[in-house]
Amino acid sequence: MAISMTDISMTDMGVTDISIIIPAYNAAETLPDTLRSIFASCPEEDSRFEVIVIDDGSSDATQAQLDAHFAQQLDSGRLCYHYQQNAGVSVARNTGLNLAQGRYITFVDADDAVQHDYLIRLYELIQQHPDVDIFEFGYQTFRHQVDTVLGRGHVTHCRGFNTRQPAFEGAVSSFVWLVMCRLIKADVAKQATFPAGVKYCEDLMYLCAVYAQARSCYASDLALYRYRIGETSAISRVTMAQCQQVREFLHSHVFHDYRANGEQSDGTAQAHSAQTHFAQTNAAQTNTAHLKTIVDANLYYMCHSAGKRTMPFFEFCRQVRRLPLLTICRLYTQGLLSRRKTMICLFPSIYFFGHRMKRR
């Protein structure tokens, strides 16, 4: 049952339900619109949430913009501003985690936006499913005008309720590691930290640790987040060293633990017969192999982006192992690999030399 605007404004007003953490660096031009979209997504008198802006050493007018346009929210405590010396987005988010007072935590980027009913819908999810540790929801993409939708996506292939293991499998299968499209119970969110000094896929590393702590997840069909596609995306700046860092993290840490715990239910040891134990262990190994295949396909796409900018073609071919063509096609037909990633995995030389020609 949906929650009305009156219900939200009149109940539990003294409780901070949701903390929204926004890392900001020289975001004076975009942050005000981001904040307006958040504050417009619930009744004006609603005080059950807080927005925490972590200014990561900005040298522009980020703070001045907040003082000029959000004085009321700053005075009421719905908007909190914290300045720190520049240390990167991971450290900024960790600072936000330490400051957050809400029962649930989520993140927003300083150049993105949220849907008009964003907070209303998050309140509904909390009320309807109070035992869930992680809520997952979809997103829309835009470039310049927030109302001009370029595409839609989701961060998981799952829907509805899932326990830890299938929820993690769904996240890996989607391979969209947007921390902004998750609402996480605070006691789960604060058990992990973003890796300081990591400039690529820090969301992935944080979320893998979060999923390892969660007991249950709920994937909603709602597209509550609006994600800005920049002129230069992170994938266009990735290096081979960063690709290797992601590969080692997933293969050495995540999948090793995932396979080791495969015979357990949600991390809880149980007594099983030898036959059941063998079946569950074998299933875990099969699922791990399948997830590794998905990861390897996405890593090949990442390495291609790095290699086409920095390496000779034959050196790239020597260093980066390509997946079998049938495997790539199967992932695409199963909806586990996007069309662009599939085409690059199938025809890397065309895209490799095409990029070189465009640079001339």
Automatic annotation (TrEMBL):
Top-level taxon of origin: Bacteria
- Glycosyltransferase 2-like domain: residues covered: 19-137
Q: Which GO terms describe its molecular function?
A: hexosyltransferase activity
The record ties this protein, via CDD domains, to: Glyco_tranf_GTA_type
Provide the alphabetized UniProt keywords: Glycosyltransferase, Transferase
Report the Pfam families cross-referenced here: Glycos_transf_2
For this entry, the protein name equals Glycosyltransferase 2-like domain-containing protein
Q: Which organism is it from?
A: Vibrio gazogenes
Taxonomically, what lineage is the organism? Answer: Bacteria, Pseudomonadati, Pseudomonadota, Gammaproteobacteria, Vibrionales
